[in-house]
Design goal:
By secondary structure, the chain is of the alpha+beta class. It has a single domain, classed as Gcn5-related N-acetyltransferase (GNAT) (Aminopeptidase, 3-Layer(aba) Sandwich). About 35% of the residues lie in helices and about 30% in strands. The chain has 4 helices and 7 strands, in the order E-H-H-E-E-E-H-E-H-E-E. A 7-stranded mixed sheet has the order 1-2-3-4-5-7-6, with helices on both faces. Strand 3 and strand 4 (about 85-95) form a beta hairpin. Helix 1 (about 15-25) packs across helix 2. It is globular.
């Protein structure tokens, strides 16, 4: 059972934590690989910087939040509330908080928000990411594939 979560605005003081969440969420991509730790860390720093720059430029009014569970920082959430849809740009939890229902609770809260506003909830996920099962279980429909990512939409 998930603990109670709170979303608090991410600040510049959270950068190291947010980077660690990003790296944790991508760790599965490096299992069994031959990357040296320094190479992997440099790659993840560059990828994080690129993603942050892209999101801030393309979705300047998106909401960046730190997910806290029972008072502990547990992950990050980036949401863009556009006129046509609520877009989950990124949701990621540290390993210790995965599999306990927190992500499900957050997504359900966004679905409730979408239902109230009469807007669909949209997200993109990597094809190999096991979170796809969660989205499908919650009623998201697989809409399209674009390279290594696929698009999911839930409509009220």
């Amino acid at each position: 059972m998930a603990g109670s979560f709170i979303l608090r605005p991410a600040t510049a003081q959270d950068e190291a934590f947010l980077r660690s969440v990003y790296a944790s969420a991508r760790a599965w991509e490096f299992v069994g690989g031959s990357w040296a730790d320094a190479e992997r860390d440099a790659f993840l720093r560059l990828q994080y910087d690129w993603q942050e720059e892209h999101y801030r430029n393309a979705y300047s009014d998106a909401e960046w939040s730190v997910i806290t569970v029972d008072g502990a920082d547990a992950g990050r959430l980036i949401v863009h509330r556009g006129e046509a849809a609520i877009e989950i740009m990124d949701i990621a939890l540290l390993d210790a908080w995965r599999g306990h229902g927190t992500g499900t609770d957050i997504i359900r809260s966004l679905m409730t928000e979408g239902a109230t506003a009469g807007r669909p909830v949209r997200l993109w996920v990597e094809n190999a990411n096991r979170a796809r099962r969660l989205y499908e279980r919650l009623g998201f429909l697989h809409i399209s594939d674009h390279g290594p990512h696929c698009e999911y939409v839930w409509a009220p």
